[in-house]
Amino acid sequence: MKYWILLASLALLPLTSPVAADERWYQVEVLVFARNQNPGGEHWRLDVRPDYPRDQAITYRDSGASLPDNADAPHRNALRNGAWQALSEGNLSLSAMRRQMEASGEYRSLFHSAWRQPMRERNQSLPIMIQGGRELPPDPSLYRASDALAADGDAEQAALPAFDGRPQYELQGTLLLSVSRFLHVDPNLWLARDDRSGQRYYVDMRQSRRMRSGELHYIDHPLFGMVIKVTR
């Protein structure tokens, strides 16, 4: 009789996705900032456009993350268990650094947030798409003019995404976080700037960095930079 009572009790429990015992969860905190002054003597190409895997990335937002269509079952279970959900201000350890940098007048914060997620091998991981900074007018060069043009055999236009009305920000791109013997982060971030004539151009930060848990890592670029901390 007790056996049937136990089964009935288990049937009433909420259907949740348990966290796998071998999953390695970490807290990730990222601060991306822009330099307020362009360095002298640097010249940037005007024909380069952001190139990162939008359709194969986890979209990170303060209101909640969303997974791409190619996300596998472990990623979907992780999302149900709270992965890639923005943590509260009290969980941010880089806030004092951000305030000090902004107070100097030399830097401007573009993105600062933290979340928890499981880490997997590189070939099992999905990049995380982030956006930040000022909202910008749409850049026509980032979108195909129409589906008719793309269907008309224009390969260059077909490679561009269709404009969907979503706002565009001066910072966009992805972070790929993975673990093998060490933690690894691969940023593919793009910053939009305007030259003296008002023409928009883009610069990128694409590196691969090996990290240790709990250590602060800084990735630099002449126009912007990123500070990241990953903690077990």
Question: Could you explain how this protein is built, in words?
Answer:
By secondary structure, the chain is an alpha+beta fold. The chain has one domain (22-231). Helix content is 16%, strand content 36%. It is globular and about 50 Å long.
List segments where confidence is low: pLDDT < 50 over at least 5 consecutive residues.
Answer: 1-19
Query: What is the helix content?
Result: 10-25%
Class per helix and strand makeup = alpha+beta
Give the SSE string.
HEEHHEEHHEEEEEE
Count of DSSP strands: 10
Question: What's the short version?
Answer:
With 232 residues, this protein is α+β, with helices and mostly antiparallel strands.
Which terms would index this structure?
single chain; 232 residues; alpha+beta; six-stranded mixed β-sheet; 5 helices; 10 strands; 36% strand
